Write a sequence for this structure.
């Protein structure tokens, strides 16, 4: 069974429209839709915005449905100048861009732990790698669609909507990231600790230069339609 998680209704409604034989179960006010896409078993959920919502949804999905892999799908903002609206990013790895040690003036200290550090009870890491086989398959399906441009690299997550150009460039340069959003690293973190393969599949809804909230609202539907094309192709071959 393949798990799919999106944060917004626009990110999951098209996917739900592909599903058949749907049954619903609500846990912690998150509704999980179990069914089939192209006769393949899947479960879909809208987690809500932010890393806590994403982590809660992912852990619940794993415990309830034991998915063989999880795909986080949705929109993202570019932190790399090369990316344009509608371009697709597939994760090589995920990072938490808002995990850092700050001084009084807002500058990063870095004394206690590097920026992006994830502190577990038994280990500390700064990045989590997505499942290469799953990511490679998603990249291949993107490349099979003539009107989709795909990039493979780092996805940066944080509990912040990053609209400032300087802030976006900082995230992109520090982490060598392609895009930023608010859920992917939390989903990856939960999958990592549960040994569940995962990948992040994001379409760019706003660029380095067109990056305020109105741009996001305007283009999120276009970006979501690009994701739907990729997932349709993906479920044709898995």
């Amino acid at each position: 069974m393949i798990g799919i998680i999106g944060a917004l209704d626009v990110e999951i409604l098209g996917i739900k429209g592909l599903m058949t034989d749907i049954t619903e179960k609500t846990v912690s006010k998150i509704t999980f839709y179990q069914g089939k896409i192209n006769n393949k078993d899947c479960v879909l959920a809208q987690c809500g915005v932010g890393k806590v919502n994403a982590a809660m949804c992912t852990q619940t999905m794993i415990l309830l449905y034991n998915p063989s892999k999880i795909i986080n799908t949705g929109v993202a903002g570019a932190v790399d100048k090369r990316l344009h609206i509608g371009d697709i990013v597939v994760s090589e790895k995920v990072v938490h861009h808002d995990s850092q040690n700050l001084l009084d003036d807002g500058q990063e200290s870095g004394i206690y732990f590097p920026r992006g550090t994830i502190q577990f009870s038994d280990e500390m890491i700064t990045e989590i790698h997505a499942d290469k086989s799953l990511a490679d398959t998603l990249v291949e399906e993107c490349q099979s669609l003539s009107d989709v441009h795909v990039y493979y690299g780092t996805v940066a997550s944080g509990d912040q909507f990053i609209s400032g150009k300087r802030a976006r460039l900082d995230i992109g340069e520090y982490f060598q990231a392609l895009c930023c959003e608010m859920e992917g690293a939390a989903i990856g973190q939960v999958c990592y600790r549960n040994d569940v393969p995962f990948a992040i599949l994001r379409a760019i809804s706003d660029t380095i230069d067109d990056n305020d909230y109105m741009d996001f609202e305007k283009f999120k539907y276009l970006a979501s339609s690009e994701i739907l094309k990729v997932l349709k192709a993906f479920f044709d071959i898995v």
